[in-house]
Amino acid sequence: MTVVSVENLSKSYRLGQIGTGTLSRDLNVWWAKARGKPNPLLKIGQKDDGNRDGETIWALKDVSFEVKQGEVLGIIGRNGAGKSTLLKILSQVTAPTDGRIRVKGRVASLLEVGTGFHPELTGRENVFLNGAILGMSRAEVKRKLDEIVAFSEVEQFLETPVKRYSSGMYVRLAFAVAAHLDPEILLVDEVLAVGDAAFQKKCLGKMEDVAKGGRTVLFVSHNMAAVTNLCHRALLLDGGRVVCDGQVSEVTSRYIATGVEQGGEKVWADRETAPGSDRIRLHAVRIVSKGEVTADVDIDQDVHVEIEYWNLRPGSNVAVSVHLLDGLGAPVLATGTASERRPAGLFRAVCTLPGNFLNNGRYSINAIVLTDVTRFEAQVNSVLSFTVHDTGVTRGEYLGVIIGVVRPTLPWKTEYRGSLDSLAPTERVSNQ
Amino acid sequence: MTKDEAAAPTSTSTSPDSWDLIIRPHRNWLDLKLGELWRYRDLVMLFVRRDFVSLYKQTILGPLWYLIQPLLTTITFTIVFGRIAKLSTDGLPQFLFYMAGTTVWTYFATCLTKTSETFVQNAQLFGKVYFPRLAVPVSILISNLIAFAIQFVFFLAFVGYFALRGAHLHPNWWILATPLFVLMMAGLGLGFGLIVSALTTKYRDLRFLVQFGVQLLMYATPVVYSISSIPARFQPLIRANPMTSVIEAFRYAYLGGGSVSLGGLAYSFIFMVVIVAIGAVIFNRVEATFMDTV
User: Fold this and answer.
1) In sequence order, what are the beta bridge partners of A388?
2) Do A364 and A295 touch, CB atoms closer than 8 A?
3) Strand boundaries in A116-260, DSSP class E
4) Cα-flanking dihedrals φ and ψ of residue B94, to 5°?
5) Which residues of A touch B24 (CB under 8 A)?
6) Which residues of A touch B58 (CB under 8 A)?
7) Strand pairing of A375-389 and A361-371?
8) More confident residue, A329 or B66
9) Which among A47, A68, A62 is positioned nearest to A1, based on CA atoms?
10) What DSSP state is assigned to residue A345?
């Protein structure tokens, strides 16, 4: 049985400012239009796009799919692909621009836990309030109160205002309420997966329970491992459209493959708006490997991080620095040039991370330009990320996971020390 | 928009294969989802409780503030308008005259200002989860009704005290119309508040306008003066204000001074119905997509 049917769903957003910003001017424009006159506030030659300034983008365009009862559907896609917009429309936070969705059964969303918690109210009062906001009746919350409290592990503090809670207690209580919603259709956003590992586990565990209970789950995520483990089917969104719908393995591999076209370069063309200060502006950051700009590099290839910047003041004492972070955002290393006086102009600094140094996996970089050793003129964090692919050249016959952030090929030496009957096991030849 | 409305079924329950929920670009103008609001009545009451409980937490005097506010206002008005400006109070004790006015006016004014902030104050909450948005304004009406009830009883206590001391008061059968007066105050506050709240999602200026606009409006309402003391040529202007007849009638009912104008009450009532209808429709319209503009 189909429980969610999405037909030609579209949602547009206006970029830039909406309206002219003041009521009097909006009325002015409206009055001119009512008389069939052109917008009086337009500059000559400017396009009339309604009482708006800026253009329209389609966060979702003609999205159609169906979900059957008991199905666990993973929705994946890059940032800005339209995943969250889709969830917002499904949870009725905002209305679509076009198309429609039909739903059978009660929908509940775990978009963010703790919605509507009031700091001054006690834990118990907040359970009731939050439950009601999420659509539970008072009687329902009352029935489940013991369960919720037990799950949240905050029994002792139930009569304490939640503003006195630790953040961990707060999240546990909030999640406990959401976890006891018992909807027929559950919407889960990955924001839920932030928090500590134990909490993530709880969230995923709850989703599994819901799914096993024959109910339907729509799960939005970046986490391919979670999607692969939990979902029966996946949907890949890109640029607001469904580009792939089917078996999880098929869709996830498609998702990873689309990454190859992506990025490896970030350019700020306009010197006025580029990150930086009145001394230094960034022009570009690039990842280059095998002579090409790319976000995917082979493990045995050198990776060049290029940073281009404008030095606006002749004689500035400039240094460039790169931070390398692992996939979880933990710093791997920092490296930089020495400070040197430079004339005004455009410069390119290149740092080479040697091949056979990083492990396979995802890394990101922060690019920083300083003057006078300590003045941060321009800093862009996680500006680019790249994936190191294991081509197998260094691993020999071992096919398992190789742990670690780096995987340098270090020199190894093994020597024959004698037969099994050797008499002097402790005897040691001095090194060299 | 009209095309969509024509194409889509107008109600969720008439669809042939019994979908529980249909999400469409625009709802019908008049589909206010009052049934849904009723299903969320627990939420409305919890909002009321939240507002009531949280307002005076960590205050020393707590709910006593409900009494201190009207008392101090009344004393101030008595001194400024009664003693210094010596405005006519239709022969009624000045204290009671001003207290009746402020009690009624405060309810209307708080309903209006609080309702008008619905979207801006709750943007965070509305952005995360769906529930009938009307639950918020309705809960505001109710929680302020509690405050009004407390202040009203306080007012009655003063009426009793003055009566015992031999003041010439003539309470009459109009007292029975009190629920009607309350309904009209609430309705007017709600209606204006809903309209402003819908507009503030785009024009934040209105928040400031409302804040002092309500204060100014008080002087265009016979709160601190009686309508009989207004020159005849300004009377129509004051009578155009829908709150005028409510305050006059309230005062007449409990104190016996001034007059009741049936025509004025009818005018105010119709005004109230119209403004609530307009407010509800605009609110309903904005609620669907306000997250994109707020």
Assistant:
1) A297, A361
2) no
3) 185-188, 216-220, 233-238, 241-247
4) -60, -40
5) 95-96, 100
6) 120
7) antiparallel
8) B66
9) A68
10) E
What is each CA distance from A170 to A113, A158, A190, in whole angstroms? 10, 11, 19
Q: What is the ipTM of this complex?
A: 0.79
What letter represents residue B205's amino acid? Answer: D
Contact at 8 Å (CB) between B79 and B247? no
Say if the Cβ atoms of A94 and B288 lie within 8 Å. yes
Contact indicator for A237, A83 with CB cutoff of 8 Å: yes
C-alpha closest to that of B190 among B238, B142, B152, B237? B142
Residue with tokens 């539970």: A136
pLDDT band at B243 (very low <50, low <70, confident <90, very high): very high
> Which tokens sit at B204?
């934040």
Does any CB of chain B come closer than 8 Å to the CB of residue A197? no
Tokens of B215: 């204060």
A 10 A CB-CB count for B236 gives 9
- Strands of A123-226, DSSP E: 185-188, 216-220
CA atoms within 13 A on the CB side of B33: 20
The model's pTM is: 0.69
Q: How much of chain B is helix, strand and coil, in % rounded to 5?
A: 70, 0, 30
For residues A177 and A134, is the Cβ–Cβ distance under 8 A? Answer: yes
Cα B164 from Cα A340, distance rounded (Å)? 93
- Band (pLDDT 50/70/90 cuts) for residue B294 is low
Q: Does residue A186 contact residue A217 with C-beta atoms inside 8 Å?
A: yes
Q: Scanning every residue of chain B, which has its alpha carbon at the shortest distance from the alpha carbon of A119?
A: B54
Backbone angles phi, psi at A36, to 5 degrees: 80, 15
Amino acid at A112: E
Q: Which of B44, B32, B42 is nearest to B138 (CA)?
A: B44
CA distance A57 to A48: 16
Select from B219, B201, B215, B206 the least CA-distant residue to B110: B215
Using the Cβ of B86 and the Cβ atoms of chain A, whether some distance falls under 8 Å is answered with no
Q: What is the pLDDT of residue A429?
A: 55
Tell me the three-class secondary structure of B107-170, residue by residue.
HHHHHHHHHHCHHHHCHHHHCCCCCCCCHHHHHHHHHHHHHHHHHHHHHHHHHHHHHHCCCCCC
Query: Which two tokens mark B288?
Result: 């669907």
Distance between CA atoms of A112 and A47, rounded to whole angstroms? Answer: 40
Residue where the block lists tokens 């009532």: B269
